[in-house]
Design brief:
This protein has about 375 residues and is an alpha+beta fold. Helix content is about 50%, strand content about 15%. Bound molecules: flavin-adenine dinucleotide.
Length: about 375
């Protein structure tokens, strides 16, 4: 997993991240999970280290890295705490990515530098009670009224929304056009007519906070429409290249944490007069975990390299996301199994990993959506 093909600067970046995660994130991950609060000061810390700007050009305050650097960052962060990684990913890859690729010069200058320093936190508000895998069912409306748009509707399951300063909201400007009639809006938290519900209780990703956002005649100045009117979401999905790669990296990071946890436990736990790891079944399970995770990581790196080379990456990104997220879930389940009752206890990392991993298969296009896209590409 210490891939020798990585360039020296990427290795250096990974080592710095690893050291940070070992010191600042891993020791706190279970406590943050139980507390169900995101340590928002981390945005500033990670921003000061320059890592929020990993995949952003220098002119907007980024460090000029690409998808490969971003994948390495997501894998390392998720190894320490997938919930922490999730908040950073929504802020950078989704909200930040949409601003970078679709924003006007003024929008970028106004928002991106502060976001990349971690001074302003953003969320990405697409999902609704009725809109999940099927994006054509978004019912939040944005009606033009003079120099403003007026938003009405509700977004659900929005990560970072309990504390976000900036919301990138998907709303229908021409509802009868379905997906083609969707546009994006930059909505500031202080906007009149916007309210955020209490944080929702979840199975996993405890430290990551999510809530419902309700818009009631919420006026958004037309200068804050992001990208084209109609076709805004389609334009965003075309340029948000980091989403599936980041999700794949999350699967790998969670899986690596699971492998480390399982290996450590089975080395020290003695049954039948010897450490568990002396049993062939246990060693073979660890070997299978390492092998599948390596395959998942190589798929992830391949997709990231295609993005960075400007080559078509769609199929590779879907394959990486599908395989790595399902491999991550499988590895976390195996880890819990090998850790036995000790792993089942609330204080163990194994149970946290087991609860955290499943959502990676759901976000950024569920496994079924990825399979559908891969199958369609085979027909081309
Ligand atoms: C922890 C967490 C954080 C989230 N953060 C955000 C966020 O920040 N912003 C945001 O906008 N959303 C967020 N979401 C919501 C996320 O976008 C949705 O979960 C996702 O879009 C899938 O929608 P759904 O969960 O409603 O599933 P549904 O669309 O209801 O699907 C349910 C199941 O049916 C399957 N299915 C659906 N259609 C088909 C089909 N045609 N063929 C075969 N199978 C199908 C799916 O694969 C899935 O297994 C978050 C969700 C979670 C759990």
């Amino acid at each position: 997993m210490n891939d020798p093909t990585l360039a020296p600067d990427v290795v250096q970046f990974r080592e710095a991240l690893r050291a940070f995660v070992e010191k600042e994130i891993k020791p706190n991950a279970t406590r943050w999970d139980h507390g169900e609060r995101y340590p928002t000061e981390l945005f500033k810390t990670v921003g000061d280290l320059g890592w929020l700007g990993t995949a952003f050009p220098e002119e907007v305050g980024g460090s000029g890295g690409g998808a490969l650097h971003y994948a390495v960052m997501c894998a390392e962060l998720a190894r320490g705490s997938a919930a922490i990684a999730l908040g950073i990913y929504v802020h950078t890859a989704l909200a930040g990515g949409a601003l970078l690729h679709l924003g006007t010069t003024e929008q970028k200058a106004r928002l991106l530098p502060a976001m990349l320093r971690g001074e302003k936190i953003a969320c990405w508000a697409y999902a609704e009670a009725g809109a999940g895998a099927d994006v054509s069912t978004v019912s939040t409306r944005a009606r033009r009224d003079g120099e403003d748009y007026v938003l009405n509707g509700a977004k659900l399951y929005i990560t970072n929304s309990p504390f976000a300063d900036i919301m990138i909201v998907v709303a229908a400007t021409v509802p009868e056009l379905g997906m083609k009639g969707l546009s994006l809006f930059i909505v500031e938290r202080a906007s009149k007519g916007l309210s955020v519900g209490a944080p929702l209780k979840k199975l996993g990703m405890g430290a990551s906070e999510m809530a419902e956002i309700v818009f009631t005649d919420c006026r958004v100045p037309s200068r804050d429409r992001l990208g084209p009117e109609q076709g805004g979401l389609i334009a965003a999905l075309k340029v948000l290249s980091l989403g599936r790669i980041a999700s794949a990296a999350f699967g790998v990071g969670l899986g690596r944490a699971a492998l480390e946890e399982a290996a450590a436990h089975t080395r020290q736990r003695v049954q039948f007069g010897k450490p568990l790891v002396a049993q062939q079944f246990i060693r073979f399970t660890l070997a299978d975990m390492a092998t599948r995770l390596e395959a998942a990581w190589q798929l992830t790196l391949h997709a990231a390299r295609l993005v960075d080379s400007g080559l078509p990456f769609d199929q590779a990104a879907s394959m990486a996301k599908l395989f790595a997220s399902e491999t991550g879930t499988w590895a976390c389940e195996r880890c819990l199994h090998l850790c036995g009752a000790q792993g089942y206890m609330r204080e163990s990392a194994a149970q946290r990993l087991y609860r955290d991993c499943k959502v990676i298969e759901l976000g950024e296009g569920t496994s079924e959506i990825q399979r559908e896209m891969i199958a369609r590409n085979l027909e081309k």
